[in-house]
Amino acid sequence: MARPKSEDKRNAILEAATRLFAERGLYRCSNVRDIETSWRRRWKPCLTYFETKDDLINALYQEIKLELADAMMSDFPRKKNVRSKLQHVWDRYVNWGIAHPKQRKALAQLQVSEALTKSLEKLGGAPFVEFQTMIRDAIDGRVFRHDLPGGNLSRNRWQPWWRQR
Fold first, then answer.
1. pTM for the whole thing?
2. How far is 53 from 154, CA to CA, in rounded Å?
3. Residue 53 forms part of a structural domain
4. Helix (H, G, I), strand (E, B) or coil at 3
5. Structurally, how many domains does the chain consist of?
6. Is the residue at 63 inside a domain?
7. Closest Cα partner for 134 from 87, 73, 85, 77?
8. Domain ranges, residue 74
9. Which tens digit of pLDDT belongs to each residue from 33-57?
10. pLDDT tens across 135-145, in order?
11. Which residues contact 109 (CB under 8 A, 6 or more apart)?
12. CATH number at residue 115
């Protein structure tokens, strides 16, 4: 009978992968063995949890994305105005990025990976549906200032420095 998988070992592997992807980049880690070397364990336990590097990438993406969503959307002020909601989400996002720099770097790598499955990309965006609705409301309600650079490109009020005369 096979031994049950340990959640602690799985989390340790994901933590090692996060650290490795943040330091080296996603494509400088050729396979699961690079991660197990970083984890300082032999490769068989790693393969018990993730058969391929793509499986590991998808699991790590889901883990970090859910952690980010939880940080951004916890205590979300649903009854406040759009500006307060935007401020809440922005503050939480920045604080999460500062508190978790390796996860932020790894997530940036993972989001552009071709290894992500389409269903997981959609699943990763699911916790942010309320956020996306809030952004549409902010645009419709003209909460964003129009006098900021790039805020009103249709009237050519702002041009990049290389086009200014």
1. 0.72
2. 45
3. yes
4. coil
5. 1
6. yes
7. 85
8. 7-163
9. 666 565 555 545 666 778 888 888 8
10. 887 777 777 65
11. 21, 22, 25, 26
12. 1.10.357.10
